[in-house]
Amino acid sequence: MIPTADLAALYASADGLTVAATFGAETTQVHFRQGAIDALGGDRLMSDYSMRYRASTLAGLAKGSAVVIDGVTYIVRVKPAETPSGAERVALLTRSA
């Protein structure tokens, strides 16, 4: 298990590695990933979005939930997965139209 102090340091807002994410009335720091995928032999470029967050935050986040990151709304694609330590969760996201 990750010590609480270490986990808090990983999600410190001043480190420049996290961004604010808002779900309902709660805003917390998350690790946001926006990866590009070259598919179909280069004919199509897709984006793969995900966020990693502390399990003690964003209670109730589920498939279909809307999350706002940097003013952009994303929809949770599937139930967020718990990391092996249980201290964090990962949510796969789709950018809302």
What does this structure look like?
Helix content is 7%, strand content 51%. It has one helix spanning 4-10, and strands spanning 19-23, 26-39, 44-54, 66-69, 72-76, 81-82, 88-95. The chain has a 6-stranded antiparallel barrel.
Helices and strands, with pairings:
Blueprint: H1 4-10, E1 19-23, E2 26-39, E3 44-54, E4 66-69, E5 72-76, E6 81-82, E7 88-95
Antiparallel strand pairs: 1-2, 1-4, 2-3, 3-7, 4-5, 5-7, 6-7
The class by helix and strand makeup works out as: mainly beta
N-C termini distance: 38 Å
Q: H/E order of the elements?
A: HEEEEEEE
Sheet with most strands = 6 strands, antiparallel, barrel
Number of strands: 7
> Average pLDDT across residues?
87
Tally of helical runs: 1
Tell me the Rg in angstroms. Answer: 14 Å
Poorly predicted ranges: none
Approximate helicity band: under 10%
Classify the oligomer.
single chain
The geometry reads as globular
Strand percentage lies at over 45%
- What is the strand arrangement across the widest sheet? 1-2-3-7-5-4
Key terms for this structure?
97 residues; 7% helix; 1 helix; 7 strands; mainly beta; 6-stranded antiparallel barrel
Task: Kindly summarize this structure in a few lines.
By secondary structure, this protein is mainly β. 7% of the residues lie in helices and 51% in strands.
